[in-house]
Design goal:
Blueprint (H helix, E strand, L loop, with lengths): L1 E2 L3 E7 L11 H16 L4 E4 L3 E7 L3 H20 L9 E2 L1
Parallel strand pairs: 1-5
Antiparallel strand pairs: 1-2, 2-4, 3-4
Helix pairs in contact: 1-2
């Protein structure tokens, strides 16, 4: 996760490997957080290249800012609970 003055950039890749694909609760939890953020932010843009998913979110509304903060906190908690399965990096410009 990278935050600039006007946008947030999210990037995800890989598999959590907590369990086989389709049974992995870490992957499922992250996927729900990812999709919730993507589908509820205004004007969010998603790009996929087969290996890496990216979302760009403009911070023009309080809604987008609140959703990005919630994503950040939630993924930090998830990564703390499953440090062997999920890595989370945050950078602010």
């Amino acid at each position: 996760m990278k935050k600039s003055k006007n946008k947030v950039f999210l990037q995800a890749s890989g598999h959590a490997m907590q369990a086989p694909k389709g049974q992995d609760i870490v992957c499922a939890a992250f996927s729900i957080l990812w999709q919730h953020t993507l589908y509820n932010c205004n004007d969010a843009e998603e790009r996929q290249d087969g290996q890496v998913d990216r979302i760009t979110i403009p911070l023009r509304t309080e809604n987008n800012l609140a959703l990005c903060r919630a994503f950040h906190r939630s993924v930090e908690v998830l990564a703390g609970q499953y440090p062997d399965n999920l890595e989370f990096d945050y950078e602010q410009e």
